[in-house]
Task: inverse folding
């Protein structure tokens, strides 16, 4: 009798353990399912503007707390309703002011000199034609006074990233996950430019790391948008059109090999003798920018290890051997999904 009771208790214990194991397995599968849904929603490939709920129809904008889209502000509206507050930045082409429109902060850009008005107007044309989730939102413009109004992002450019993470308010965001997501946003912008409605556009204003970082803004919800579009020449392979980024000699280790003067040092630089190149110059720079964005937080070296192969491909000296931006973007997303899947269940639960 006692033996039967003992066997029964032992059998009951195994049944309980089996139930617990099945529940744990179900929990892990369920959390992974939620994680895949989360990643798919956040990092799904870009769709057309009309499928993006936060993108307004062409010629309209929506910022801050606005519920409806409004037409771009014209010269009269800017003069009447926009108030300058303070100067926040000066570049070769634009002076940027913090300004206010109907109680909302906006960025007001003005031409620095008539000598660079063509670059200024080119940037405006790009902002008008390329409005998407990858770009800063155009609020209005006035060509008569060479003025551009865009959404204001108080966290500034990616040059300020480390300073931002040092603020107590944002220290909790300083993780390899968030840093990799910023890199994904950055590559997403490059991919969008290389496959834009205007053709294959090249980020020419990118001869060093700081210059590249200054082109991108960090949004308050920790995404990346491109802000400076003054130098975006188009590659048209069908018609044999390649690009050259300026008429001066480019130097340094950051730029792609094909952007360097290919002749002997005793041969004086001449733009006429400088070969043209394509969008693969942007691909060459991706590993350096991503390495900076990843920083040195816990887990960043693991991310670098998983990105090693694709970054080696990006660093091929022959431009035609480098992958497309879309391929790099797909790899980045796959690495994020893989590493998130490998995280402990407790960390995944916190993420969700």
Result:
């Amino acid at each position: 009798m006692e033996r039967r009771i003992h066997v029964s208790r032992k059998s009951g214990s195994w049944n309980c353990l089996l139930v617990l194991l099945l529940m744990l397995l179900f929990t892990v599968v369920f959390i992974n399912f939620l994680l895949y849904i989360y990643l798919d929603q956040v990092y799904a490939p870009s769709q057309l503007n009309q499928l993006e709920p936060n993108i307004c129809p062409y010629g309209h904008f929506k910022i801050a707390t606005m519920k409806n889209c409004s037409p771009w502000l014209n010269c009269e509206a800017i003069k009447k309703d926009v108030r300058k507050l303070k100067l926040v930045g000066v570049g070769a082409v634009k002076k940027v002011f913090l300004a206010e429109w109907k109680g909302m902060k906006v960025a007001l850009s003005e031409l620095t000199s008539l000598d660079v008005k063509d670059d200024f107007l080119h940037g405006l044309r790009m902002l008008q034609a390329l409005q998407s989730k990858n770009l800063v939102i155009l609020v209005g413009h006035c060509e008569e006074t060479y003025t551009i109004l865009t959404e204001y992002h108080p966290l500034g450019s990616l040059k300020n990233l480390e300073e931002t993470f040092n603020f107590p308010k944002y220290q909790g965001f300083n993780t390899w996950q968030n840093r990799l997501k910023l890199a994904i946003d950055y590559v997403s912008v490059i991919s969008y430019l290389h496959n834009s409605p205007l053709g294959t556009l090249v980020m020419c204003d990118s001869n060093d790391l700081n210059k590249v970082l200054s082109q991108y803004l960090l949004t308050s919800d920790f995404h990346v948008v491109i802000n400076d579009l003054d130098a975006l020449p188009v590659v048209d392979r069908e018609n044999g059109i390649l690009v050259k980024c300026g008429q001066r000699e480019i130097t340094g280790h950051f730029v792609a090999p094909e952007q360097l003067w290919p002749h002997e040092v005793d041969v004086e630089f001449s733009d006429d003798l400088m070969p043209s190149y394509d969008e693969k110059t942007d691909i060459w720079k991706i590993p350096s920018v991503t390495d900076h964005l990843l920083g040195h937080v816990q887990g960043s070296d693991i991310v670098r290890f998983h990105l090693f192969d694709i970054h080696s491909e990006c660093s091929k000296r022959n431009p035609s051997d480098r992958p497309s931006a879309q391929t790099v973007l797909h790899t980045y997303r796959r690495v994020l999904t893989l590493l998130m899947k490998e995280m402990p269940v407790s960390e995944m639960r916190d993420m969700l």
Q: What stands out?
A: The chain has ten helices and eleven strands. The radius of gyration is 25 Å. The chain has two domains: 49-151, 158-351.
